[in-house]
Amino acid sequence: ESGERFGPRDDADNDDDGDLSAMTDAEVREYHAQQKLKQKDTFNESYDADKKSSAEGALDPNDEEVENDYMETIKREKEARLKRNQEEFGDEGERSRIRHEGFRQGMYVRVRIDGIPPQFLSSFDPNMPLVLGGLTPQETNLGLVRCRFKKHRWHK
After folding, report:
1. Which portions of the chain have biased composition (kind: Basic and acidic residues) (predicted)?
2. Does this model's pTM top 0.70?
């Protein structure tokens, strides 16, 4: 068999491949590299066009500039909030601030707990800290994280 292909009108299909058997190894590699680059460019163009059309005006979450702008905005909001808090609670002192805001992270507090079971007292170790805490309103909502686990191919 010659390996030639013929179309419906007995025309040979010509992809402008040239004769690969007549090329040297270096020429074949160069030819395949050019074909790969062409295919990659067409894919990138179509992918970018699809992305632009599907996200009209949407921001790219991977864009570093957008992320930096977002972080700067958050930082400015935090500074404004701290300044406002200092203006409000600066004269009244720390007690008033704690009464309105609650205990901040890292503050040491003395807690009195009533109705402790005897097992707690018998197994309590004063060298080990007892961690108490609460959740902010944002942390009390149900949060979902999407993830995938994949076993290694060697794991049986």
Report:
1. 1-11, 26-54
2. no
